[in-house]
Specification:
The complex is a heterodimer of chains A (about 270) and B (about 675). Chain A has about 270 residues and is of the alpha/beta class. Chain A folds into 2 domains: about 130 residues, Rossmann fold (3-Layer(aba) Sandwich), CATH 3.40.50.300; about 80 residues, no CATH class. Chain A contains 9 helices and 10 strands. Chain B is about 65% helix and about 5% strand. In chain B, a hairpin with a 2-residue loop joins strand 7 and strand 8. Chain B is mainly alpha-helical and about 675 residues long. Chain B folds into 2 domains: about 260 residues, ABC transporter involved in vitamin B12 uptake, BtuC; about 230 residues, no CATH class. Classes of the chains: A alpha/beta (about 270), B mainly alpha (about 675). Chains A and B meet through helix 2, strand 6, helix 3 and helix 5 of A and helix 1, helix 5, helix 6, helix 7 and helix 11 of B. The structure holds adenosine-5'-diphosphate and magnesium ion (MG).
Chain lengths: ~270, ~675
Amino acid sequence: MSLLEVDDVVVQFGGVTAVDHASFTAEAGQVTGLIGPNGAGKTTCFNVISGLQRPTQGHVRLDGRDITRMPVHRRSKRGMGRTFQRLEAFGSLTVRENVQVALDIHRGLAGRLRTVGRPARRQRADIDALLERVGVAAYADDRADSVPTGAARLLELARCLAAEPTLLLLDEPSSGLDETETDDFGDLLRELAAEGTAIVMVEHDMDLVMGVCDTIRVLDFGEVIAIGDPAAIRSDPRVQQAYLGYSDETAPADGVDETPTTVLEVTR
Amino acid sequence: METFLALAIPGLFTGAAYAIAASGLVLTYTTTRVFNIAHGAFGMVLSFVFWDLSVRQGWDPLLALVVVILVIAPLIGFVVQRLITRGLGNAPVSVSLVVTVGMFVGLVGLAQQRWPEDRVEVDAPRFVEPFWLTFADGDGVPGWQIGGTTITGHQLITILASIAVAAALYLLLTRTRIGTAMRASVDNPDLLRLFGGKPDDAAALAWMIGMSLAALTGILMVSVVGLSYVDLTLLVVNAYAAALVGRLKSLPMTFVGAMVIGVVEALVAGYSVDNELLATIKPAVVPLVLFVVIVAMPQAQLRIGQVKGMVSAPVPTVPRMGVSAGAVLLVTAMVVATGSEVTLLRLGTAATFAIVMLSLVLLTGYGGHVSLAQLTFAGVGALAYAKLGEPNLLGLGVAVLVAAAVGALVALPVLRLTGLYLALATLAFAVVMEKIVFKNDTIGFGTGGAVEAQRLSILGYRFESTGSYVFVMVALFLLVGVAVLLVRRGVVGRMLIAMRDSPAACGTLGLDLRWFRVGLFAASAGIAGLAGALLAGLRGVIGDTDFVFFNSLPLLLLAVVFGITSVTGATLGGIGLMLLPVLQAESVGGVPLGGVMFMVIGLGAVLAGRDPNGLSSYLFRGGRWVEQRLRTRLSASLPQLPPAGADDVHEDAEEPVAAPARVEVGPGVPARG
Ligand SMILES: Nc1ncnc2c1ncn2[C@@H]1O[C@H](COP(=O)(O)OP(=O)(O)O)[C@@H](O)[C@H]1O
Ligand SMILES: [Mg+2]
């Protein structure tokens, strides 16, 4: 049984079908790539998995349990963590405080009581170790809205890791990172996977995807058009077709406005 | 059945007027994502303009109508969009609420100033004639008989106007380029820009049309409601309710909602003659409907991609809090020792308002939620304290708990919804309380409008003299202030800020936002209740006029103007609000300041709305500057001193960080589609 199962999910916005009967899985200890052209429905898939978007149809299962209708915050308690394509760092807190909040939320009231008396310094050291691990220790005392995009993305990752997730959803985590940072980031992903975390990553940097993913799902027009390991995906004609004339550097920035939108209805 | 129809049919006509207002509201909201709380206030001012032109200046009513609706209103709409509301749609909802509440209060002030109620003009009666008053049927009875009821020409015109508006909007939105752009600009302004559309033009047009529709509604209703600042303005509550029936996006449903509301209102009014329950709720049917509609709204999904990161006022360290609190107590003691009874009462009032503003620091400054009912919660606290007749800490505690419980009760039904709906729910709640509960003989202030309360005793010592009582009030204010700051410095404070910055991230990190928010709301209402209870003790006699709904608005605005993120802001705001009626009674060079003060506050809020730290942030900046100068001086003259620990001065951001320096990814175009 796979850790995450997305089963026949459909999401419609008015007339637009953003996700069209998509089904795929992700396994513990593996990095799963989710790729596809802009507007293919990758972010919408993540929203469905993390509970920010109710699917029109279909199911999401985590560890065999149907979580399609589970509230957002409960999914985190069951080990899910995610980052956002459009940054959602807590801008007016420092980078360290961002992680601190995540820890506070994760531990809850009971957890706080258990850690009472534990020196604040120890906790701070834990947080700093986490910041060090994802590579944003240099920004620890900066306000999160003043750090570069790449660092803010890594910060979001650190925030997730504070809750010790079993499933990580990363939405374009490497944009904003330079080459060495991207390499370090890839190493970190492999480490996390080796510790048993299931990672699903939406990513446009094909070198990164091909380098770290154990398996890849390709989404196009909301449909899963291919599933396989990097080598198989690279040679799949349908994938080449979908990506024709489309290289990572020249790709227009992905970015469908993610705010739930209201279309003015004039007829019913 | 016949009476039913006779009662219901007139409701359709008022419904038609509400529909016009509500469609304007929906149009501006969908196009620019700014919910214009001041929609009704604009309608009110524009109907005054119409009255001024047609009655005072003697213009032909038709000419005046055309000028107001087709020239003045769109012009105002354009200016408002360009100068005030542009870009607000991307700001946190608390900001757009504050700015539009600012316009609301400013406009009411403008009307009071320009057309004072007590000015008697013989040749300009404060009255607008209904249009076509004298349609007569064959028997010389004005109007037509339909279903046992009489339809007047004015009613006919109202319904025709609403049909015309509906048709025009339909054509505009579906058949024209700019109309399509208006529908699309909310969807994705960047996408629209890419395809050559101009979201700003669409926004301006939406505001122009919205304003015209507000004017039209106001003018149609003014002959029914009368030229009243508040009644005309509050008509908009009906429009809010109708717009929410359309879920702020569907125009047909908005029209249906407006009709239903008009009919319900007419039926309740009609049947209340011989039904006690209906008679009780009659004054507040529409806010009740609004509340019900809000509660029935579908679950809101957590919004992603909002603008985040606000500059927060610095949070002082504990020693610093101690020093400031000591200073305030010292000043209070001096005033208590020397001040007259009047001064003392004013100081007590200022302390009351300052405590209410502390409740807003917690709720709005830290939590990012707006309440338009803080004075109402204060009223609940005052009532509980007075009715309980236990003038001691126990009674005070119970008053706080009752207010907190009521706060939780307001927040609970809107648990699933987001900030805008919470704010509208508080508005509906405040009006219901004012019109029904506060008037009730058993649980309210009663028909007499006042109840008696006694001064507080603590541990057997009774603070009978006004001076000592005021001192206690200030001390309690400081206590609550310190508590609020300690909360801010701790775990809960961090979570509050996090929740304000990104609810979606908090949710995915495992925070149950709903209960957190109810708790926050209850705490805030409890603090306001404390203020009300203390005021009751101070005054000895307290009534519903002390907690008028409308006054919650200037209170919110002053809190924002002085800085809603700091205790200093609350202190200054409390003093400012206390001075307001004092200043209003003054006149400068023969010009009475009554309405001017509202205009100033409204304008202040419009200007300050985007910077929640308000005026007090200048104080902090000045203070830091002085401090730094002193420190460099000091360290220059005493080089052996260790450098003062820079990072234990302020917890929070030292300097406001300007626009986030991050690079946004996107928004771009989807590759295809
Ligand atoms: N809230 C929304 N309202 C309407 N349409 C949306 C919304 N979110 C996404 N879409 C549409 O769904 C499609 C998929 O978007 P998205 O999931 O963001 O794609 P990706 O992340 O793969 O680039 C796009 O066509 C987009 O326009
Ligand atoms: Mg995406």
